[in-house]
Amino acid sequence: MSFARKLAAWQRRHGRHRLPWQGTRDPYRVWLSEVMLQQTQVAAVIPYYERFLARFPDVEALAAASQEEVLRLWSGLGYYARGRNLHQAAKKVAFDLKGVFPRSAREIETLPGIGRSTAAAIAAFAFGERAAILDGNVRRVLSRCYGIREERKLWEKAKELTTVKGIEIHTQALMDLGATVCTRSNPACARCPVAADCVARRENRIDELPAPRKRRSRPTRRTKWFVLVHRGEVLLERRPSTGIWGGLWVFPETLEYKVRKRKRLPALDHGFTHFKLRVRPFLCAVSSRVEAPGRIWLPLEDAIAAAVPAPVKTLLSGLLGK
Predict the structure, then answer these.
(1) Which of 34, 50, 109, 256 is catalytic?
(2) Is 34 considered catalytic here?
(3) Which of 61, 144, 183, 224 has a C-alpha 20 to 30 A away from that of 135?
């Protein structure tokens, strides 16, 4: 049996079949799942996907929403640029394209936040296009099985394999094999359907392939957060629309209030792609609240449900005793 046939047979028996975005050719649902799955584990995506669909059942509903509401539902999923791009792409489809989702990978790639591999996956699952994908899981499978290190050659191999019948099964099989069997560390080679053909296994190069990307040391940035509370309400300020946590609500980094009582809270560490953030939070009780543009006082229960990043939610949960 060929590589593709072995893969398809394995997928039918051992692949993932009950994920909430499977069994549909609705491009909106496929697109939503593929964006959410970028750099995020399936288990973490499922509840977000289901909540999004419940609130935004189609692209028109998503396009009509405010960015605030979109980011609120995205809160905790991370990589918030995905949420902002998702919203912008929905507007483009709903308004500029009159609700008609692009059908080819090349056209899909023109939408905000959609790269080559994601566009190909959407085109394959929604429209049956023979488009090559090369996300992290697929890159690992092909690199190890064929002993390929160079990115260009990996794309060539991925494209070569799209000549198979049943592109949807083939694409899902590659994804599933990389996610559940051909993992980054401790791959389950005994359960791999193509282990007998695997160059990395035969040449004892599993740890070498795919070629590791150069990791830059991430500097640590430090900041202070002032958690101002007044009569059960907390002060939040909106981040600029672009950049880290763009459009989300966070605690002020400067103190402009007369503090009645101040307490230092345990430091928080949060990792970004290019740097690490260490936050020193201070709980500050104030005697009065002052309104200001870009800032808002919210009851703690409302604040934790707002569009806030994970570290803010962590601090708010601590204040609520959750």
Answers:
(1) 34
(2) yes
(3) 61
**Full domain range(s) for residue 108:** 3-202
Residue 127: inside a domain: yes
Same domain, 52 and 193: yes
Nearest residue to 24 (alpha-carbon basis) of 174, 167, 125, 169:
125
253-261 contacts, C-beta under 8 A, 24 or more apart: 253/223, 253/224, 253/225, 253/226, 254/226, 255/226, 255/282, 255/284, 257/228, 257/284, 257/286, 257/290, 258/286, 258/287, 259/284, 259/285, 259/286, 260/285, 260/286, 260/287, 261/285
Mean pLDDT of the chain: 94
Nearest-angstrom CA–CA distance, 38 and 79: 9
pTM of the model: 0.89
Does 214 fall in a domain?
A: no
- What pLDDT sits at residue 31? 98
Same domain, 171 and 234: no
Is 322's pLDDT higher than 80?
no
Angle between helices 42-55 and 27-36 (to 10 degrees): 140
pLDDT digits (tens, 9 = 90+) for 122-165: 999 999 999 999 999 999 999 999 999 999 999 999 999 998 88
